[in-house]
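User: Sequence for Phosphoenolpyruvate carboxylase below. Tokens please.
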Amino acid sequence: MGLFLQGLRSAGENRRLVTTSGPQPDYSSLRSNVSELGRILGDTMASAEGDDFLELIERIRGLSKGAREGSGQDQAQLLEQLRALDNDQLVPVARAFAQFLNLANIAEQHHLVSREMDPLLSASRNLSNSLGELRKEGVAIADIEQAISALKIELVLTAHPTEITRRTLIHKHSEIGECLARLELGGLTSREQSQLQLRLRELVAQIWYGDDFRRERPTPVDEAKWGFAVVEESLWRAVPEFLRRLDEALEQHCGLALPLEAAPVSFVSWMGGDRDGNPNVTAEVTREVMLLSRWQAAELYLGDVTQLLEELSMTRCSDDLRQLAGDAHEPYRAILRQLRSLLRDTLASIEAQLRGEPALELETLQCQEQLWQPLLACYHSLMDCGMDIIARRTLLDVLRRVRCFGVHLVRHDIRQDSARHTEALSEITRCLGLGDYADWDEDTRRAFLLRELGNTRPLVPRHWQPSADVREVLDTCAVAAEQSPEALGAYVISMARQASDVLAVHLLLQEAGVQKPIPVAPLFETLDDLSRAREVIGDLLENHWYRGQTGGRLMVMIGYSDSAKDAGVMAASWAQYRAQEELLEVCKHHEVELTLFHGRGGTIGRGGAPAHQALLSQPPGSLKNGLRVTEQGEMIRTKLGWTSLAVKTLALYTVAICQANLRTPPAPRKEWREVMEELSVESCKAYRAVVREEPDFVPYFRHATPEQELAKLPLGSRPARRKAGGGIESLRAIPWIFAWSQNRLMLPAWLGAGAALASACSNGRAALIGEMAASWPFFATRLSMLEMVYAKADVELSAYYDQTLVPEELSFIGERLRQQLQADMATVLEIDGSDQLLANQPWTAESIRLRNIYTDPLNFLQAELLKRNRQQEEPRLERAIMVTIAGIAAGMRNTG
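Assistant: Structure tokens for Phosphoenolpyruvate carboxylase:
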């Protein structure tokens, strides 16, 4: 692809991370892989579209590079070239740049797990070094053992309403990564190398000649299947591999072994259970997804048991196993055949139910112990008979999976908006002649709910016919009642604002016949909700019935997306921090163990940050009961989509949690808190002055970004808005942030923060802010994330969108925002004492700079396409817009 990769090939000297000691990263293979993939893409395009097309792409790339280097003439020619494209050229030109960025991302992902980076990023080294450091610091072995024993990592896989990439394309990307990994191995013959190169060319050709996007929106069941595929293709192997490495690190530094029954990591799914604002998620959908989850688990265990049947052909066994196996010559295989039969019958029975038929009258897999006990008996027999090396390989991996995945593969959360529960109770109380529940004050609601929770008679009249929406709420509770407790994670209440919102769900679940209490987790999302979280939970824990219901354990979810949309990132992050502190305090007072559930997204505007950095910036004690955090769409792919990446991610979470719990993290000083309070108030005021109080802001937003076009694209099963019409408040946080990342203003991730920092510095707080940046991880992380946002934002591109799309009478808004952005950048650089963004992260800065050469044409082209399509809608234009959206998302490395 010649010149298409010249910029990447010539950038090697700058690709170094600043480190104080230890091995330095080497990016030579990354440069080589990016060059090779780009060359293959160029050859593929030339073959498919002709040499003239490749020359056009090279010309656009060259002009983009010149424009980035400051040539006004190159920029003018670039715009002229893009505007001159006819409708037939739009999609292929956009695809050329989008696919190059996708391939560059694959090369970078592979680089993170390559042998070249192993001395720096190895999961085994990370775990071992961290435990070693803790021991050197004087942490007792018993304390480390306790921390590992209490380790609980729950990753909640969620669907993504702006998920761009099709599952078939994700598979091809994974295959490309696999080829790169195999090419990295030494000792390949020339034929083996040639075959791998041919496979790469085949895969790139499959991508180019295929369709990048689905034609119709995925259903919630489709999304759930996508989530199960991630487990099958990556996590099923990653979990036992991670546990093996953790076991080795414990043995090396503490002389301990990880217990066989240890299950420090597990997975939960919102796919098919998250009905908040998604009318496509029904009770029947949730029931089907739960069946599919059990089916997938049984299918995976069947594969494992079949492999063990091939391997465990030994004849020597313990007396205990002989009692189980009888007179069989090969006792292990006799036991495994019984398991195989059980799993086959389970699959047949579930398949019948999925067809709408009754479950078959067969013994089926219902609980972990049905797998655990016979496999454990085999394990102990092998150990007793001196066959440790056999016991501690494949069989041990299967035992680890049984504990971590159970028989349901993932546990399922249910999420619903509190208003839907209020609506259901309103209909019930009106039917009973008690008045309208919705009109009652909080004390009246609470008294009614507690009275009914203690009542054994049915609440709902037998022949009552509720409305369709209320019937759906009741049916969902009925589905929860049908499930075994191990199948369910939590019932999450969106927009929880008062104690009655929690009690209402307990009552509806009780009425549906739920026998064992399900954790009911209120989600505090807006600034006001976060500020009242302590009061709400305190009121609940004062009640004897509720305290008994919790069993001494409570889960509360902290919302990052909607709080940032409501108040801006600075005010939201401080409100989240304070809410966690206060919740920990009130639960400690009532002797209740609190699990904090973090509803983070991948982007900074939704609470995203490098995982290790984010966890260590949490309030002291917040990780005592483990980590429960959402992993969404593209972040699932980026962090968990490949086995090697998933192992690293799990190791990173483990290290951060252990460090946070075994070290004493710095608590903010009183004067730091005072500064944060000021920053929170000022940043919120500045944010809302634009988003809420500027009367023309919503029209400007809809002109300047592809928000309207995003809503039309078949990206996810969930609508972009919670309700039709409305302004920013009705728009979901993910497409809100996605839209601003497309026009490169990145507004939700910075608006208000810099203005508040500048105000504080000018009011004599500069020295304190410098102390906070140097000594408080929470505040340092905020500044670091602002720098990242500023580095990805682009004032000139945003201005071009405005010139192309925004009516003149609204253009003043964009001009003010860009002026504010530039002032904010200067403020943060002054606090850092630096003259350039990301000065201490040169590789990140260089990566962004190089990507811009390929992302800029997509931005310019997108603005032109939006203009044309808004004048006259046309399918070709809409598809081209979708390609630019995907390409820009790849260049930014995130969407919502």
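Residues 293-405 form a domain with the de novo design (two linked rop proteins) fold (CATH 1.20.1440.90).
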